[in-house]
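From the pipeline queue, job 12 of 40. The input is one protein chain; the requested action is below.

Action: predict structure.
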Amino acid sequence: MSGYDSNPFVDPVDVHPFQDASITQASGGTENVGEFNPFSANDLGTHTGTTIPIGDAGSQPAILQTSVEQSAQERASAAQTNLIKQQEELERKAAELERKEQELQNRPIGRALNTGTKENNWPPLPKIFPVKPCFYQDFEEDIPDEYRRICKRMYYLWMFHSATLFLNILACLAYFTADSQYGVDFGLSILWFILFTPVSFICWYRPVYKAFRSDSSFSFFFFFFVFFFQVAVYIIQTVGIPKWGNSGWISSISMIRTNLAVSVVMMVVAGFFTVNAILAVVLLKMVHSKYRRTGASFSKAQEEFSQGVVTNRNVQTAAASAASAAAQGVFQRN
């Protein structure tokens, strides 16, 4: 009953809760916490008693890969190089245009009309000659750089073709003097020279010149159509069928026993015809390869032809005349 004798109003004994022996023992180990080194050798399983410096660790620090940055730099460098090339190309074209403009400004007044048309300069005839030039030709101004060489070669082929036809007249003349029955060859050789020289210029050289100048599909197809026949004519002239007006191999060989000197002259011309045929085939293939790069097509040729017919003044005049004549005929019947 002694518990009941205590005064409940008396202050109880001030008991500190952390003075308990178990708590004091547990909290007594915190005095050396600050001295703990997690990188000490004792904690790593060794007993050296020393701490391993961080710099002596065997592993290297992680390095951020810069492959993405390098690829971005490479793309930027490639783009800059491309821009530099484009700028150089534009500057080159600008210089070319400026050069052409300067040439036009320095050109004499009589060279070009105020309407913008160019004065004809081919064939180059003297001013005192009564016949004036019929065509305008300037490779440097009209033909692009990539087509200029092949266009000049076609022009040289036409010149070689004309020279061969002229030499054919001389060979046929010798043929006629050696044997009078071959006078028909001499007459036909003159006709071929007069006919084929201008016709070849108009029918296959000028079309290929216009095709390269203006990238005309119709001119390309017209050239191919006519030049195939020209190659066939070269082959016939090379063969040299008697009484066809050509000093070819058959005619020249047939004259060996009759007159050797005439036969040699005719063989030289036959060799010229052979060179013409070979060059024509080679240049035809070259023009065809250039044609495939231009993007020309048969549909474009048809479109250009139809537009040319519709816009041609002569065709318009003829159509108007036919329409008016038909209308007058209808009114007269009524």
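Job complete. Residues 29-33, 41-49, 108-115 have pLDDT under 50 and may be disordered.
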